[in-house]
Amino acid sequence: SKFNSSPSTMHFNISASSMFGLPVTFSSSDTLVAKFLSEKLHIVKSGTCNIFADQTGNDSVKIAPRITQPLVINKKNITITAQSVSKLYGESVPPFAFASSGLVTNDQIGSVTFTTTATELSDAGIYDLTPSAAVFSAGSLDNYNINYVKGSLTIDKVGQNIIFFPLSYKN
């Protein structure tokens, strides 16, 4: 059989038994992907490895043949969305922010790169705000498939007033 998991399932129990009740021990072919801590399988990152079940036997029972099962830890899907903002024509472009969903408990995104064609003096209108290149402050990009969702930068028309100076009489 095959285990499928994602980095969001950080620890779980696995079990096996032997015919004569002797203890079965488990190990991983790649402890950078998955390892055993306190008799629980701990997912370290996405990838593949094999999980081995061994039973050493005793004075009356032979060593059991090793059982191997593949383990596949899939990348977790997350979404990073640019938060839409607005400004008035002539104002500086405001700072951009993002929201993320789907991260594993302790993982955090520290920064995201944003691109837009809008500038301080761009005409009033709605401009795409495109997020990309997430940088993790905790966790690893290697564990995720990222779906980036555009936001918008809306530039509103600025109001104006007419100043009409008094007419002066001339002869």
Could you give the distance between the termini? Answer: 105 Å
Query: Which percent range describes the beta-strand content?
Result: over 45%
Task: Please tally the β strands and state the result.
Answer: 14
Helices and strands, in N-to-C order?
EEEEEEEEEEEEEE
Described by strand count, sense and barrel closure, the largest sheet is: 4 strands, mixed
Q: Portion of residues in helices?
A: under 10%
Total number of helical segments?
Answer: 0
How large, in whole angstroms, is the Cα Rg? 30 Å
The dominant shape is rod-shaped
Task: Write a structural description.
The chain is rod-shaped. With 171 residues, it is an all-beta fold. The chain has strands at 3-5, 11-12, 25-28, 34-37, 40-43, 47-54, 67-73, 76-82, 85-88, 98-101, 108-115, 125-138, 144-149, 151-156. The termini are far apart. A hairpin with a 2-residue loop joins strand 4 and strand 5 (40-43). The strands form 4 sheets. The protein has a 4-stranded mixed β-sheet with strand order 1-7-6-3, with no helix packed on it. Strands 9-14-12-11 form a 4-stranded mixed β-sheet, with no helix packed on it. The mean pLDDT is 90. 0% of the residues lie in helices and 47% in strands.
